[in-house]
Amino acid sequence: MKISADFTVVPDDFAKAAAPEYRAGGVPIISFPFYIDEVNPEAHYLHWTFTDPDSIPVCGFEWIHWTVANLPIDALMFDFNDSHALSIPPDFSRQMTAMIPEAVQGRNSSASKFLGRDNDPAVIMRYNGPQPPDKDHDYYLHVWATKEPLPGLNQGFWMNELLHKLRECGEAPDQGGMFVTGKA
């Protein structure tokens, strides 16, 4: 599987410099577009995490920005003749629940009880854009594809639950990833 985007630095609309109308609770909430190519033809579901490993020296852990599970590939209505057959459009995080209700999004690090943030699902269970406080950070988008949906994951799952379900799914999921930079 190959994951790509039309950028290597996350554009302002999806990150720290996002306009006020692209934020909730001060957090950028418009997810960026990306492509998923060369997926195993036997796979029917997509799952992903978007995290910030460079946050470890800043806050002590890898910041979780976005998690998705059980997205049916068929729901994306892709074209096999397109060079980027599977395209995740901009703002997919906010639109996905209404468009594809069987797909679920998990909690991100804004849901931590240690942050004291608002419990608004738009902030704690959707995409949170990069906002590195100290210097540019490299963010990792990791995508998996499976033949079957992962059981037991509901809206608001935690990332560790997704990783456990991937390990327990009884197959070797197809997977790929990419790094992008978030500007400080």
UniProtKB/TrEMBL annotation:
Gene3D superfamilies: PEBP-like. This is YbhB/YbcL family Raf kinase inhibitor-like protein. CDD domains: PEBP_bact_arch (cd00865). It holds the Pfam family PBP. Signal peptide: none annotated. Belongs to the UPF0098 family. InterPro entries: PEBP (IPR008914), PEBP-like_sf (IPR036610), YbhB_YbcL/LppC-like (IPR005247). The lineage of its organism: Bacteria, Bacillati, Actinomycetota, Actinomycetes, Bifidobacteriales. It comes from the Bacteria.
